[in-house]
């Protein structure tokens, strides 16, 4: 995270964990940067080097998640100050108000791709500015054949109510089984080790669980669209963005993929990039799809005009057929009458 912060802020930061100094001072394109803190976070964390070293110091396992990063494309229709105001408003309302520390920066190397990097802490803070747990050990205890999970703090009360932890015991020379100590002692079994049975991942902090949920990610995406559209409206622009996928919007067109700076740099040198080539093919396919849909629309309109005309013609023909059938019926009646008359006069 120290290296990521140094990159987004184009600065030189020292990582206490591995003793490496990350220097990105020669990187171009930094437009604006700022560290946002909740009101109860230590103010010394305004120094991003101290903030991210504090994050790394608090994590004990080698595979810990240290931070969450968002990269947001900024509307080019907004001027620079409006883009900065957009990021400040979004970060403050969506992240800092929730208790996260945020390290944000805007990059724009060529004026064509303004975007923001937002690096966020993933461990909640308490009101004293101390890190809370992300997950807590949860022991699987039993009572009268029922199994239930308790944290260490909860187990003190649960133990008084008759709940027992389960430990591994040898039930024969090779087979192990988790049993409460009272049952194991009654059977004279030998405990394998001191570690009680617990859930695999522990119990997640409710705040962290909400931050990590897919529903929260969808809410953040929707909020980004809302605040961006508000800024575009304030700037008097008609353009709007939509956070939903083409499928969710009911569109048949294939979405393009992210090309990235490296692919675009290859294209500028005259080298065909795979990602750019895919996007070109997608655009051709979408153009063909739009053309086919336009033709279908024309045919639909033609059918809408033709079918009533056909229906009107059929109705006129039906009327004529009905009249003709009536005339035939009348002629048949006359023919019968004449035949009777002829039958009288024929002799």
Explained architecture:
- There is one protein chain.
- 46% of the residues lie in helices and 17% in strands.
- It is of the alpha+beta class and 347 residues long.
Oligomeric description of these chains: single chain
E-strand count: 14
Residue share in β-strands: 15-25%
Strand order of the largest sheet: 3-5-6-4
The stretches of 5 or more residues where confidence is low (pLDDT under 50) are none
List the total number of helices.
9
| Overall geometric form | flat
Euclidean distance between termini CA atoms: 124 Å
* Average residue pLDDT: 89
Q: Percent helix among the residues?
A: 40-55%
Which structural class matches the secondary elements? alpha+beta
Largest sheet data: 4 strands, antiparallel
Order of helices and strands: HEEEHEHEEEEEHEEEHEEHHHH
Computed CA radius of gyration, to the nearest angstrom: 38 Å
What is the gist of this entry?
This protein is α+β, with helices and mostly antiparallel strands and about 350 residues long.
